[in-house]
Fold this sequence. Notes:
Porin
Amino acid sequence: MKTTRTFFIAALFIINTSIFAGNKENWNDSLKFSTDKTLSINDNIIKNKNIFSFENFDNKGKSEQWIDVGLRIAPQSTWMINGNMIQDKNIKYKASFGYFGGAKLGFNFNEVVAINIEGLYDRFNQSFSSKMDSVSWKKKTQLTFIDIPVIIRFTNGWKYYEIGVNFQTLNNVKGEFSSDSKYTVSEFTNPTKDQFNKSNTSLIFGWGSAIWGAGGMVFTTGIRIFYGLTDITGSNYRDLSYPNPKYPGYKGDPAKNGLKYKMTKNVSAALMISMEYDLGYFMTSSCRRKHAFVFFSH
């Protein structure tokens, strides 16, 4: 009996020793990466030298969440929409154009859903002209904003769709006026910064498609629409005179003429061209106590 127990213990020792020897390399890899070890994650080949912290990580700790960065540029059709002005027979809206451009930081939860935060310089224009026979004039208002869009983006293959909120801070206001009549510029309302709200909010809708990609870089093009939720007119100028330019025959306070005050909202449609670049992904140790960020090596 004693001999059988001794043999059984010896056999267990030999088996355990063989398992340890056969998996020694995997064991060491689970404790510490070799600096030359190559990982393949999300079809991206990355070198371990790009990891901030090397210890106690294994392949089980890899994540499908990654960070990307990008640039945006877009010409846009811009409109300051006011119901009273649209109905005013003495004022004509003219097609106006601006642009925006800037950068973005994206957090991708997976291959479908991402959140993008952008920083944009946004130029917004609106031109008006006279429809009166007695007076001929032209007027242009130019607004510049610093935009912070927060966007949820959905990707389906090469196509994408986006919805979000844009937070605007007014940066500058300019105006131009010309007239071939006897009326001078001083008799018309010229835009100044205090006539506008310092901040505005708008909804964002967009869609588009990738057009080319290689080495972690993708170029996309698409349509983005902004629809204002708040009044751009400052509280001290909320009457029919603004953003209307005053003109001969101006009737004054809308309340005295049976008109209700209507907000002026910024609305625009842009053709957006973007460059996206996959920066890196997150990694967690097998014990869940350590984290690292890994740069993609494209």
